[in-house]
Structure formats: C-alpha cells, structure tokens
Amino acid sequence: MPTRNLRVAPTVAPVAPAIDPVLAALTALRDEMEIPAEFPRPVLEEAAEAARRDVTDGREDLRDLPFVTIDPPGSMDLDQAVHLERTAGGYLVRYAIADLAEFVAPGGALDTEVNERGMTLYGPDVRTPLHPAVLSEAAASLLPDVDRAAAVWHVDLDETGEITRARVARARVRSTARLTYEQVQARLDAGEAGEMLDLLREVGLLREERERARGGVSLNVPEQDVVAHEDGSFGLEFRSTLPVEGWNAQVSLLTGIAAARIMRSGGVGIFRTLPAADPRDLARLRRTAGALGIDWPQDVSYGELLATLDSATSRHAAFLNEATSLFRGASYAPFGGTGQPAGVPDDVAHAAIAAEYAHVTAPLRRLVDRYGTEICLALCAGDEVPAWVRDALPGLPRTMARTGQRAGSYERASVDIVEAALLAGRVGDVFDGVVVDVENDEERRRRAAKEADRAAKDAGGALPGPEVQEVVRGQVVIADPAVRAGVEGVGLPLGEAVRVRLREASIERRRVGFELA
C-alpha cells in the first residue's frame, strides 16, 4: 500500500507536560528505537569550538545580494537562502547552502556522530538534530542579518527555464529576511512580494513546465501535520501544500540536477536514484483511475494527468494517494569513490524527476549533502576531491538507507501516538470519512492465506469460514480530527465517502483502527 504523506511540524514553543500518556509514549518510542536524547560531551565540545571560529574570511563577498530564506514557521536550521535576478538571456538563480564542511573536521568526534545519526529527526515534542544546535541553529545556519559561510550555486537559465550553465563556490553571505511559505504566498497573492519573489514564482512555473516536458512528476498530496500547542497538547491537521512551496522546491531540484551534471562530468559523485515504475503498477493505477471516474486518455502521460488533479476533491485525493505507490526503491549511487571502478553506473536517473539528480541542498539536516556539496566545490574549482570524501562515498548509501528508514518509522509511529491520543475514549463512535486506499487483489490474497493458516492452526486443522475472504482492508481519512488510519469492511469503496466506527485507539500500542459502520 502507499505510504502516508506526513510532516511533523517544528515545535515553536517548549511543550508543557499536559498530556503525560502521550509524552510517555513518545519517550518510550525513542528509547525503543535508540534515538539519542543528547550529544556526547566530546561532540558538543568540538561543535562549540568550531562555532567560535570565523570561517567567513577569504571568501567571495556576496553580502550585497539580498538573499532570503523560506521555511516552515519556527525553523531555525536554515540550510538554504535564495536570490534570483533576470538576465539578458533568461534568469540567474543563486542558491546559498550552509557550508558544513567548514565546521565538521573529517574523522573527528562530530563527524563520527553525524555519520551515525544520518539526518535530523522531527518529533511532536522534540527535535533530534543531525548537528548540535550551536551549529544547526546558530553558527552554520543561514539566519538573517549575520555573516555566514555558504556554498553558493550560480545557475543560469534560459528564457524557458532550462539550465545553461552552473557552478558553485564558497562565499560570504548575509540573509536579509527569514520568511515563511505563508508569508511569501500572501505577498504574491496580494501583488506585494517584490521583484525577487515574483521571479521565484516565474522561475518555479517554468521549471514545473520543464519537469512535465521531461516526464517528471510532482505529487500534491495533502500533508498530515502534527502541531504542538502551547498548553502541551498536540493536534493534527491536513494541509495542502502552497504553490510557493512547489516553486521553492523547484529551485532545490534544479540545483540538484546541476550538481549531478557536474559530478558526471568530473567522474566522481553520488546520485539520488529512483527506478522507473513497474509497468504492472502503472496498469493498476490506470484501473484505479477508471474505478474513480478519472479520465486518463492513452496519449496523456502520468505527469500530465497529475497536473490536472485537485487534492481537495476526494476522488482525486484517493488517486494521488495511490500514485505514491509508484515511488518506491529510492537509493543512492556513488561513483569515483575509493576502491570503486571508474565511470558512472548505468540506470542512475531519478524517475520522478526524470533526470540525474544529487542531494546537495540540505546539509544541516541530511548527511549526504555535505559530501555532495564538497565534490561539486572541488570539481568547479579544478581541485582534487578530498580523500575523506572519496573514502566515505562507498558506504554512504548504507548509512542513508539505515537512517532514512529509522526517520520514516519514527515519524509514522509518532503520528500514530498522537492519533490514538486524540481518539482515546471514543471507541464505538461513528465518523465521516473517505476511503483513500484499498488493498489490491494480490495483497488481499496474501493476507487471506496467512489468516487462513492461523485460523486452521487455532481450529486444530479445520478450514476457516468464508468470512476470512470477505473482509477488505484499506485506509480512511477522517477530517475532524485529522486522522488517517486503517479500516476494514466488506467491499470498501475507494474514493467514496463512508461512515466508519472506531474500534481501537491505543496510545500504548500506537494503533488506531476503524470498521465500516
């Protein structure tokens, strides 16, 4: 089945201990998953020493450019700052990225710790950062009105938004504003954003067109957000992404595409990969479209169809949810590292982006980006890629797979806990919802076979009754509270409104379950 599209929003204020069972369950979850509560003392000492150093000397001075950051409310770990301008031939996109290599000494205590953590983990009550706060929320973060060390990408685009040239170099920058997506969208809608943010929309729209032309896709599935309230309680809400979030994401994507080109040319790098969808999955998705009453002509591509859908429509939301099942098997492909054969491997494109692509824009929150950035800096400067980078490349896919799986499991379990808390005491109540996912025939047959085996063992070898085959499992979305959970029933109607009865809500078991009413 498709994965849940969720986001644990940054905690703006300290969470008061108002809901002890929830906090206890979240603490138990972190203990169970061995998520560290703090950094070891040697790591903190090394980070503090690095934060005291002035790492901005000797760099190109770009402080006259009014870079801005655009992030969710309350964010302090600011990886990226953007500046755009119109040129005679199109556009110049400058993207400043926090320069973590200036703060993390290869082989030191901090380097060892961040290689163990892999990425920042976001929980409802606490955030488990990749780097200590003295770096991730202070010295290395691109906060406004302070000088910062950055790796600045300069990407030239033609009038259609196509990349014509790209380079990256170290520079000193000074962000002029810390903006939120909501602020930028409101200014754009009111016509009060100013030239630079107007260009963000213009370039973002062009890059979305280029994405569709390549055969790439972007899924606008509503996110399920966990929100921490000042009284210590937690809430859930479904939030459709704003257009500016997509335009801002296109800047990161074009930077990652440019980085991949530089890596390919230099013969050393690490690509983010995603295999093409299985034709059988695409055929199944076409059948789903038909069942939902969505017209999908044979001459319309997958990406073109997605661009016409509105996630606010229940049938469209159900289809978009099913479409996430095509995005499976993402990995990393390093090449040119120590002990690796020369040349770029085959089949290293990212199918959803429809291009070769590298992660280089979020080094405060994701380990691999520091290495990718350092590769591109060296290649653009005509220098040798540092040995510590080449040595690390072969092992990075395993590290990122391990830590990425942990991050996904942690966020899903955290949301499960909050969902159960919101519904505690309401077992037996009936809710309005929409079925957004139903297990397919193969999944149902496998489950039925397992249940039949268990039933036969429990019955001493007797065959189970026909009811084992009749129950279908799926996922239902409830608007109030904003919950997505499992549902069982006979003949679940995909994409349709239903009445469901809550049959389980357990904080301790991190489980919520419904059945058709």
UniProtKB/TrEMBL annotation:
> Which domain of life does the UniProt lineage start with?
Bacteria
Q: Where is this region: Disordered?
A: 442-465
Q: Where is the composition biased (Basic and acidic residues)?
A: 442-457
Residues covered by the RNB domain: 59-382
| Pfam families recorded | RNase_II_C_S1 (PF18614), RNB (PF00773)
Q: Which InterPro entries match?
A: NA-bd_OB-fold, RNase_II/R, RNase_II_C_S1, RNR_Ribonuclease
Family annotation (SUPFAM superfamilies)? Nucleic acid-binding proteins
Supply one GO molecular-function term: RNA binding
* Entries under SMART domains matching the protein: RNB (SM00955)
Q: Where are the transmembrane segments?
A: none
Query: An example of a Gene Ontology BP annotation on this entry?
Result: mRNA catabolic process
Q: PANTHER family, alphabetically?
A: DIS3-LIKE EXONUCLEASE 2 (PTHR23355:SF9), RIBONUCLEASE (PTHR23355)
Its protein name is RNB domain-containing ribonuclease
